[in-house]
């Protein structure tokens, strides 16, 4: 999950290599230590980039988190296209569950949420990340409307939100376990609401 190059930098070359190395180090540090133990010094040591460079370019831990989220928002998401909105929403919800239960991806995903709860810059970056994910997932709903599976005017982003929100509630509010059955129920509830015209 990460942030755009911008600031007039040319893509590619040493700047891109430095950014990629720092981003990889940030993700590794998050996976191993979590957000509260993330430091510029740790990222610099792991990436091989001098900490002065990291401070100058990213400013601190908040900038590292924001950049990692920005880069992730630019990456494609494997959106399902099964030919059925029911199966697509189920697969999407299961994809979210996997992102938090996978032993490699899960700690990083959880660390990003924790960072957003504690830091305003990370919160803004996380909102952008989710907006990108919602936009990428929107074709699930627009295809369903075109096939006549959902009513015209159904809001794609609201359907996607409804399909994944119960998963995040369990993960970060009630702290209950999540699995494929939870994903399927969340997707089913979102689909029922969409079919009823509530979304």
TrEMBL record:
The keyword NADP does not apply. SUPFAM superfamilies: Homeodomain-like, Tetracyclin repressor-like, C-terminal domain. InterPro entries: Homeodomain-like_sf, HTH-type_TetR-like_transc_reg, HTH_TetR, Tet_transcr_reg_TetR-rel_C_sf, TetR_C. Residues 39-58 bind DNA. Gene3D superfamilies: Homeodomain-like (1.10.10.60), Tetracycline Repressor, domain 2 (1.10.357.10). It holds the Pfam family TetR_C_11. Residues 16-76 form the HTH tetR-type domain. Keywords: DNA-binding, Transcription, Transcription regulation. This is HTH tetR-type domain-containing protein. It comes from Actinoallomurus liliacearum. The lineage of its organism: Bacteria, Bacillati, Actinomycetota, Actinomycetes, Streptosporangiales.
């Amino acid at each position: 999950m990460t942030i755009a190059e911008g600031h007039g930098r040319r893509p590619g070359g040493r700047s891109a290599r430095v950014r990629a190395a720092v981003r990889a180090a940030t993700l590794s540090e998050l996976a191993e230590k979590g957000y509260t133990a993330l430091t510029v010094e740790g990222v610099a040591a792991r990436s091989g980039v001098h900490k002065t460079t990291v401070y100058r370019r990213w400013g601190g831990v908040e900038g590292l988190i924001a950049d990692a989220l920005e880069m992730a928002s630019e990456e494609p998401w494997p959106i399902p296209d099964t030919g059925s909105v029911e199966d697509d929403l189920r697969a999407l919800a299961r994809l979210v569950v996997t992102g938090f239960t996978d032993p490699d991806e899960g700690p990083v995903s959880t660390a990003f949420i924790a960072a957003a709860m504690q830091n305003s810059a990370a919160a803004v970056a996380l909102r952008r990340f989710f907006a990108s994910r919602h936009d990428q997932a929107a074709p699930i709903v627009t295809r369903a409307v075109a096939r006549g599976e959902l009513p015209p005017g159904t809001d794609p982003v609201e359907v996607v939100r409804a399909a994944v929100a119960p998963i995040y509630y369990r993960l970060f509010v009630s702290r209950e376990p999540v699995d494929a059955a939870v994903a399927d129920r969340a997707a089913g509830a979102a689909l029922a609401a969409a079919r009823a015209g509530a979304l």
